Amino acid sequence: MPFKAACIQINAGREIAPNIEMASDLIRQAADQGAELIVTPENTTMIEPDKEAQRAKTPREADHPAVAAFADLARERGIWLVIGSMSMALDDGRAANRSFLFAPDGNIAARYDKIHMFDVDVPDGQTYRESANFRPGEQGVVTDLPWGKLGMTICYDLRFAYLYRALAKAGAGILTVPAAFTQFTGKAHWHILLRARAIETGCFVLAPAQTGEHAGGRHTYGHSLIVAPWGEILADAGEAPGIIYADIDMQRVRDARRMIPALEHDRTFKLPEETRAAGE
Question: Residue limits of the CN hydrolase domain (predicted)?
């Protein structure tokens, strides 16, 4: 049976408590509109540009107020809730950029730690060194929903197509890509990459995003998207905070994969060798 999914688009600030409240209000609105699977962006609970302040504000999972708050909210509304990511302090002094799937009973059904670190000098003048504060994840995650299997990713993962292929081949028919894409890279690549990941895998892609100007002059792109397995954009949030919805029919996954069964056509091949100029 089809179900309604929702992506939440927010402009997160520097403090955890107001961000929990802001996201929770939108999650409740989405649930009131009948959404059964709701997804929030990367860094739902904090965007703090000062790295030392970020470390100081980041609790361990067992002590994190947002974990308890969102678990209670999922239970209260009887929804499947993906909190796109939250910073979780680890024993080595770094943090995990961790996505959570809360089940309708409030239990944590799955966790995913972001694998690919955004260590980039963006041409707009911003520099990002995610690996300075975060420990990369090492495990791809596919988990069960009532309607099919969910593959979990975060933001910069989007540029690594092999991860999405692996999730799809492990059974995922829905992919989550919570993000805080920069405005500069978002304008160039966000829509194209998300449509490509949907088309390559024959999956629905749910991609909630941060939007607007944040502390420290950071600008995120917005345009949360829900993309169908054939590549059609079902909903685009534009630039304002809010909610987008789409009806998800998993038959469309089966139809897309039947028309283009590329997931069944893998072949082994030798990696290219360095070529020498003629005559050497």
Answer: 3-250
> Is 57 among the residues known to form the active site?
no
Contact assessment for residue 98 and residue 108, using Cβ atoms and an 8 Å cutoff? no
pLDDT tens digits for 75-129?
A: 999 999 999 999 999 998 899 999 999 999 999 999 999 999 887 877 776 777 8
Catalytic residue at 138? Answer: no
Backbone phi, psi, residue 219, to 5°: -120, 125
pLDDT confidence band for 276 (50 / 70 / 90): low
Q: Alpha helices, DSSP H only, in the chain?
A: 16-32, 51-57, 65-77, 161-169, 183-185, 191-201, 251-259
pLDDT digits (tens, 9 = 90+) for 205-263: 999 999 999 988 889 999 999 999 999 999 999 999 999 999 999 999 999 999 999 99
Q: How far apart are CA 40 and CA 234, in angstroms?
A: 17
Catalytic residue among 36, 114, 149, 203: 114
Told to judge if 114 belongs to the known catalytic residues of this protein, a careful annotator would answer yes
Domains and CATH numbers, the chain: 3-263 (3.60.110.10)
Which DSSP string corresponds to 95-110?
A: EEEEEEEE-TTS-EEE
DSSP string for 53-122: HHHHH---GGG-HHHHHHHHHHHHHT-EEEEEEEEEE-TTS-EEEEEEEE-TTS-EEEEEE--S--EEE-
Distance CA 102, CA 84 (A): 11
Catalytically annotated residue among 36, 42, 149, 203: 42
The model's pTM: 0.95
